[in-house]
Design goal:
Layout: E1 2-7, E2 14-19, E3 22-27, E4 41-43, H1 48-62, H2 78-87, E5 96-97, H3 98-104, H4 111-119, E6 132-133, H5 147-156
Parallel strand pairs: 1-4, 5-6
Antiparallel strand pairs: 1-2, 2-3
Amino acid sequence: MYQYSSTPTPIGTIYVICRMDHLVRIEFDADFLNYSKDGLYVFAPEDPTCQMVISQLQEYFAGSRSSFEVPYNLDGTPFQEEVWNALCNIPYGEVKCYQDIAIEINRPLAVRAIGQANRRNRLPIVIPCHRVIGKNKALVGYAGDKIGMKEELLRLEGAWA
């Protein structure tokens, strides 16, 4: 069973999903509830882990937090986890391109695979895939069709004019 809660933010309502004292997903809309079978997701705003994540997200959006200290579970392939760990090293207020990440993890030809790993990041904002932009400095690929969110997050961090 998963506990979830939500919080309003400048980019819309954010849902945090936790399980066994760990953050497991962040969602930007409630569609995930459509896949709930037999009460798989339980609204639990009092869950301590959900509260911790929401508190840190609120601090982030208020401009008083630049990184997150929440227990989370990565659920990906070893390559995806390597990419996600590299994303956590991008400083607040800075951006890198997909090629930069590929070089950092010693896989210079894996640019498209880096993009696919970003796409599968289940912890956006906490694992800052929004800080990755195209080589031509264009905003590309964020949570499917949510480029506007990426732009707002980068503006919040002072990384986008």
